[in-house]
Amino acid sequence: MAAESQETLEEMLVELKDTSELMIDLAYSALLLQSKDLARELLELEEYFDGLHTRFELAVIGRKGNSIDEKGVLGLIRLGFAAETISDAAAEIAKIVLLEIPTHPVLRMAVTEAEDIVEMSHVREGSILDGKTLKELALEDKIGMKIIAIRRGLKWTYNPRESTVIHAGDLLVASGYAEGGEPFKRLASGELREI
């Protein structure tokens, strides 16, 4: 039982870390692209993160006295809090986008210099992505975009395997060259029928 609980804590901590990293990527992309859609999705992800963080802290506190000493409990709680701080900072960046605060000229220069972006898109019925594995699609080779996360319902998968099958309704998060962003969104929507 103790090993199972410990593994759950480890899995939760990894998910906190992965989610906060994804949120920072999304926040900067939303800001650079002035994308309200990315900003809104990020705020939804922040709500999910808050729930995960609360469950993690409760699980850590529940383990106190079992296999984790007091310093270990404190260390885990501090790690969770650090990830929460990152999540909150990403949400603040999203709010700047939603408030339509004008982009500073330095930021506009950074956009023109940026080679990589992060895009999010829902897979629609009829999309050629639906029902195919990441390996079959080879989006990174064909359009320069790599799927870095998938949300299916309320569950997030980070760094999905090549054997992962995409389904209509999935929210895909892709990172890659700026030129691949538009084709990626058009493929997911079903508007573009060939890769």
Number of strands: 4
Please trace the helix and strand order, writing H or E for each element. HHHHEHHEEEH
How much of the sequence is in beta strands?
Answer: 5-15%
Helical content stands at: 55-70%
What is the count of distinct domains? 2
State the name of the first-level CATH class of the largest domain.
Mainly Alpha
What structural category arises from helix and sheet content? alpha+beta
Here the CATH topology of the largest domain equals Methane Monooxygenase Hydroxylase, Chain G, domain 1
Mean of residue pLDDT values: 87
Strand order of the largest sheet: 1-4-2-3
Distance between the termini: 48 Å
Tell the overall outline. Answer: globular
Rounded Rg:
19 Å
Instruction: Please summarize the sheet with the most strands.
Output: 4 strands, antiparallel
Indicate the CATH architecture of the largest domain.
Up-down Bundle
The helix count comes to 7
Low-confidence stretches: none
The CATH superfamily of the largest domain bears the name Phosphate transport system protein phou homolog 2, domain 2
Walkthrough of the structure:
The protein is α+β, with helices and mostly antiparallel strands and 195 residues long. It folds into two domains: 2-98, Phosphate transport system protein phou homolog 2, domain 2 (Methane Monooxygenase Hydroxylase, Chain G, domain 1, Up-down Bundle), CATH 1.20.58; 115-189, 2-Layer Sandwich (Alpha-Beta Plaits), CATH 3.30.70. Helices cover 59% and strands 13% of the residues. It contains seven helices and four strands; from the N terminus they run H-H-H-H-E-H-H-E-E-E-H. The protein has helices spanning 2-33, 36-63, 70-98, 105-113, 134-137, 139-143, 181-189; strands spanning 116-122, 145-152, 155-158, 171-177. It has a four-stranded antiparallel beta sheet, sandwiched between helices. It is globular, with a radius of gyration of 19 Å. It starts with a helix and ends in a 6-residue tail after the last helix. The model has no long low-confidence stretch (mean pLDDT 87).
